[in-house]
């Protein structure tokens, strides 16, 4: 060592000195000598070994040690062996966690990595940092590795070192992390200084690197399932019994799943055995085998193409000629999975064989061509281009229109994606006749052959977008119109970004259509130029042309929805150039255009922070246009319902105060919209709404107070003083609390502190409250709680579920707005998990589940269905898959779900209401899928009716079906019947099942349905019971002679009923005839007009009442069951009768009153397009306690019946 240092001209005594100043002087001399000599003249290995001893890695002075690290970095610029590199890394590893040494150490590690490769450095650093006592050492070491990955690239050498020794559970966590953070293309900025070496790839000896980088997929190990592929399994796959073959395929599926979805390619004879199943005579097994092969392809990765390409590709593609759609779809699924592990050029020739084969049906050819169109992308080479051109030519000559159309779509896609020289070469390689035909096809597309085909409509230029964002200076949050030079500026910005036809402002309609048609192909350009496209949309909105306005709004909506589906978000530039104009133009004169503006704003809410969006909407509340003010207020109310009051209160522009200013507006519709917003704030915040509104004069205060007093919406009440004293471990106050009797409504029990805490705007506080509620619910769910305690718990279940629903809506709304993996506050997975847990445990308690009202059930079902409709918002949470599974359990699992445990009548009613009025916020494209989910739930409920009818109120169910038909109307029912509408077919199926099970007994439950003209359930009940098949009682036996006699008697009686002098006697005869043959006579009467039928009904009811009164004067008249009022009201009144079996008591009348109120609320919601809760139609009256005054109750029934009849007449008039 002394010789080495002396050779370099360094005094050893300086490095051995006890004074740090002298040691520093010595190291500076060493650094200067190393810098003076070139890399070829250095001996880095020997010098590094010397520095490890003097001043040594244990040097206490940070300046001296930093100088040592600088010398190591300089030495690493020359040739360095792995042994010397290991010594250097050993000296730097311990000091990487110290702030004074961190930068020199990082520079030294980078230099050593460039010399020997970062794979070796990472492996050494991992070993040393793992043994360090200081926990900061491994943390800082990982930070350096994270920086080295994008700097050097990623390769197998580092992969082996990074994941060596991981447990299977840890490997699964790594795989999940990779899935949540998809790898982007990384351009290395540092390289290993070895000739021919790929970044991050150095072999064990340090002489030759690995041939190249690999994907993230190579980081994870694969499991061999060769040992599980036994002779028994292979014999099952080859069995003559289809059940055994099916079991064998299922066992293969289980093997793939058990391996964690990652298997090794050593499958032995499994693939040949599965190949034989692709031609199975049982085509369902063939489809199942194709799906299994899809999973194997995904699990095996790129090796699948090498192992199975020659063996399976042709047999798999031949299944596209099958006449079963199930088999064809499974074959396409295998091709898609195969495309994930192989190139498209590898698959296109095989798919071509299915297109040109004569045995392939038209549907199979269309499916194959569509798959080729969807799979096209950059990088198609000559072999793939040949297959594409031949497929296009074969499709153009097919006799089926659908095949020719699919070929035309493939032609357009190929011309845009495949390089023109490849297409020209493929065209020239065809025979003479085919070459001419192909040339004509391309000439029609491009106007003269392939050469002039235009480039992409949008050219991605991210740098230009960043420059525009840097230069942008917003003038105001309010839209102030376009500047005079905006068209010229925008056209200048479009130069180099778009193709010429898109810059033609005269053809902007065609430009919008072209962009929509090619959205998937030019998506990168759309993202890079989104601000320019939105500015272009604003420019077209200012033209004043209606067709142009509608087209560009539809384009904007499609762009925002596509951006949401891609997981993107609106930048500040995008929002400020576009949204103020949307807000200002929202008050258009046509309903359709206003609806488009509102849909665009709602789409923006999922891409842009809602408080910032409300900052842009608030100026619209002060617009000169009254219609714009109303639209902005209604949009604000909808966002309050969806997101709660938190975003509005967090907004800087104070939208609640701006809404309060609208109460002074002279326009009544504007004041009404403002009151709707205030009501939404009151629902979320309670009495805090007054503080948010600020100072109001007397008139405005009275307006708000009257609106809130008449509100029918349930709000989350603030905890009262009494509730604050109740322990958090209870869910309801003691029922024995003394209070004076009152004829009015009974006061609601105070909300306990735990339930009130669930409504807290602080999510952490709400989570703790929900944990407390879960612990309180668990003993009841396990049967360890007394009946009295469970009853008390059920009394407050309504408030609990409504509060949890509101909190879950807020948390899930925050999850939808947060970009996945992006910056900002991430949504609370704990809040979502505990909210769903409260619902699940509450539903496990029968008394709690059955105590839920129809309104709460509707809201809960709506929330769960919306999550099932689009589970991407749940997957943004940390435990996304677990939350998706919990939602499925809550909704559909047997014995646990909402449909299984709650009141089935209320479930039917809630689902039928969702069929006719879906929740707000669902866009038109999602409606079919939403209806499918609702129909699946109704199918599950209907199947349960076949097993057990107990607990189902058939009268209420028929009323809800009747209201569904009333909501549609005759014309809409006819239209939907013509297109085989699934919701309408489902409701008819329910009615048919009821008629089949009840038979003619269904009429006893259908008496409350007032006969209508074709758009009610009455004709369907008659038809269903007539053909029901005898589950209910059959009509009384009547011979043909008696039937003829009864018919002749009815023909004689009916004309006499129209003459006043003979009417009384004719009615007597009809009464006696009906008592002998009730079914036949009722069926005959049903065919008469509404007025005549009502007249007959009243007359028969009076006669029946007279007979009943003569038999028992103390019994209420039985005519109430037939619709005749018991208090002497005049006949002909079209009011619903009392329920069968009612004794006329106060309790029975109150039950009927509740039924009428719920039906009236549903009818009102049908007409107005909303779904108000059935409760609280008359705020001052009690629904839960009878008043004891029978006269007042019947008077209330009369009042509600009159209002319902008027509402029905208004509905028919508007229809």
Automatic annotation (TrEMBL):
Entry superkingdom: Eukaryota
SMART domains xrefs: TOG
Biased composition (Low complexity): 714-733
Pro residues: compositionally biased ranges: 740-752
GO MF term set: microtubule plus end polymerase; microtubule plus-end binding
Chain intervals for the UniProt region annotation (Disordered): 193-217, 710-756, 1014-1043, 1106-1190
UniProt domain TOG: residue ranges: 1-187, 218-451, 485-717
BP GO terms, sorted: establishment or maintenance of microtubule cytoskeleton polarity; microtubule polymerization; spindle organization
Name listed for the protein in its UniProt record: Protein MOR1
Species this protein is from: Auxenochlorella protothecoides (Green microalga)
